[in-house]
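Dear colleagues,

As part of the handover before I leave the project, I'm documenting each prediction I ran so the next person doesn't have to rerun anything. This entry is a single chain, and its sequence is reproduced below.
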Amino acid sequence: MLMYILFILFLLGFIPFILLADQKTHTVRQGETLYALALDYKISMEDLKAVNNLDRDMLMEGETLIIPTDMKDRYLVMPGDTLSAIALKTGNDMDALAALNRINPEELRSGMSLELIRSPEKGETWTVREGDTLSWISLKFNISVERLKQINGLDSPLLKPGQILDLTDKRPQTVTVGPGDTLWKYSSKYNITMKSLQEWNNLEGETLKTGQILQLYPVVLEEEGVNSGSDNKDNPVHREPEVRLAALPFSPPLYYALPTRKKTQPSPLYAEEDLDSPLSNYREASKLMNEFDRAIDALPRLSRILEGYRIVIDPGHGGIDPGAIVENQDGRGNKVYVVEDEYCYDIALRVYKDLKRHGADVLMTVISPNHTIRQSPDASLTFVNEKNEVWNSLAYNKSNQDSCWPVGSRTGLNRRVEMAENFFGSAEREKTLFISIHADNQPYAGEGTIVAYHPGDSGKESERMAEYMTDYLGMGSYTHAQELRVLDNNPAGAAVLIEIRNLAYPNNSWAIRNDDLRQDDADRIVKALTGYASRP
């Protein structure tokens, strides 16, 4: 009878479905409080109130409360709990747990209900809620964004509330062809057209060979070890865990000191001039970077792979030079404009943060006086072209002349190389790297990430690093030898310029505006560099 009543209440919208999976009841006794019951039953006050449709904290003697008991995805914070202790107890990474729940460790309070990270069960699905992103679901279930998109056939990371996502694949990524197996058999079994199977496997006909590895997706991705549902025990796909890098231990505002006068870039020609003189801007930017460094130092180390490395991160353009300004659309069909240097600076900061957490000594060539990492709260708003970035060097700002502002001229590009030379000092050359981050705007260049190196580079190490990085930078990535001043005579052991996205393609121009996807771009660069540093 109780379950019948609960079902009717659910249909009427009084009880959230997620809390109906399993529950019992409790009759309130004299003196009992909501807080005490939440502790007794190891659930949060919020969940207890939600499932009982309570808009009050006071309880009445004799009333019956529903107690949800299916809490495998959550942890109730108890008095004395710390985030590190909860992470250890639940087998979750502390940084990832903080990022998943969007909290600082210092914000942890008794009675909070925390989301937990776990691998999905075979055949499990997820119904998209308001505010869900692919990156959040990826973190929640320890699945890469690329794999989620592959499993669900998604071309875009945009999600709609109510959309149902598969969390495990309905077919393996590859199979080993057995005796007598035919292309038609696999086409029928996995509901794939024979034409697709032929294209994905470069087959001219329908003949298969015993022992042949057959791809069941256009691209085979390395995956995290979730249950794939594959019935092919003889051909396990090689999987390596994806490291989801945690956010900062604070939620950064869009701008720290002076906000932009416009909320969005209104036209290709619009720009907001320097906030002050070069020297004043340098002092403000240095203070902000020191705060940023302290926040990074408060995070746990990710590894020691890059200890002994000195790495220069060079955000493309900046100062007087905005780079490309490309027209795009928001989610409502309105024109918006994407400013290359503003978005590349944001990706560069994300790379800077995590390279330091892997033990590297890192230098940014240009820095901003009024923002660090920025979020992108609204599809209709884009970062404004601000001409306020300065060289990250007192010597280059000391004269306080207009000539101190960063520019895209030969002098400006040479200055980036000079800064690298000063920063590297007497460090081992093979442990010095220079990474310049840009966004291309060339329709003929393709959508994939380009890693450029200078032709004739001494020892070919830049070319080798470029080739190595493309394995990490997504489908369609490729290397390109190019005469670029910022790479010419660069003192680094290896120096590359990364065109992380091609803004000539509308989907890339949209993606770079999404902070989750900028973090994904940064993650790929960091994984490529740590992989390169730890290669045999």
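The CA atoms of residues 169 and 223 lie 11 Å apart. The radius of gyration is 26 Å.

All the best with the project,
I.
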